[in-house]
Amino acid sequence: MGSATTSAFIRYRKKDYRGALEAFRRGRTTDPQLQQLTKFYTGLSLAVLGLPAQASAEVEQALKLAPGLAADRARPNACATRSRPPRRRAAS
Predict the structure, then answer these.
(1) Is the dihedral of CA 7, 52, 39, 28 positive or negative?
(2) Are 32 and 65 contacting, i.e. CB atoms less than 8 angstroms apart?
(3) How far apart (Å, rounded) are the C-alpha atoms in residues 45 and 20?
(4) Alpha-carbon gap, residue 64 to 56, rounded angstroms
(5) Ramachandran region of residue 50, left (φ > 0), alpha (ψ -120 to 50) or beta?
(6) Burial class (CB in 10 A: 0-12, 13-18, 19+), 49
(7) Distance, CA of 34 to CA of 76 (rounded, Å)
(8) pLDDT at 9
(9) In a 10 Å sphere around its CB, with 0-12 CB exposed, 13-18 middle and 19+ buried, how is residue 5 labelled?
(10) Domain boundaries in the chain?
(11) pTM for the structure as a whole
């Protein structure tokens, strides 16, 4: 992971969304997973900054970069949800 990308994630975690956005945009990588994460977190930063249309576009680009990666991460959660018994609500 490059220093700009590392800096971006640290800024995001510290809720410095504008700084994170700038660092994500400076970061360059050839790793498809990091490219996808960078686009995704760029989108999250834009959403927090009140730019939902741009945020949505970044997330869509992230999914197009490596669609299999997103699906692979989501699959275990979907399977776990199906195998759990439904929750029962306590009687009032």
Answers:
(1) negative
(2) yes
(3) 7
(4) 12
(5) left
(6) middle
(7) 21
(8) 94
(9) buried
(10) 3-83
(11) 0.69
Tell me what pLDDT residue 91 has.
Answer: 62
Mean pLDDT estimate for the chain: 80
Reported as a single tens digit per residue, the pLDDT across 37-62 is 999 999 999 999 999 999 999 999 98
- Multiple choice CATH, 3-83, 1.25.40, 1.10.3470, 1.10.10, 1.10.1740: 1.25.40
Q: Where are the alpha helices (DSSP H) in the chain?
A: 3-13, 17-26, 32-48, 52-65, 67-83
23 in Cβ contact with 4 (< 8 Å): yes
The two structure tokens encoding residue 50: 């009140």
Count of C-beta atoms within a 10 Å radius of residue 75? 10
CB proximity list for 4: less than 8 A, separation 6 or greater: 23, 24, 26, 27, 28
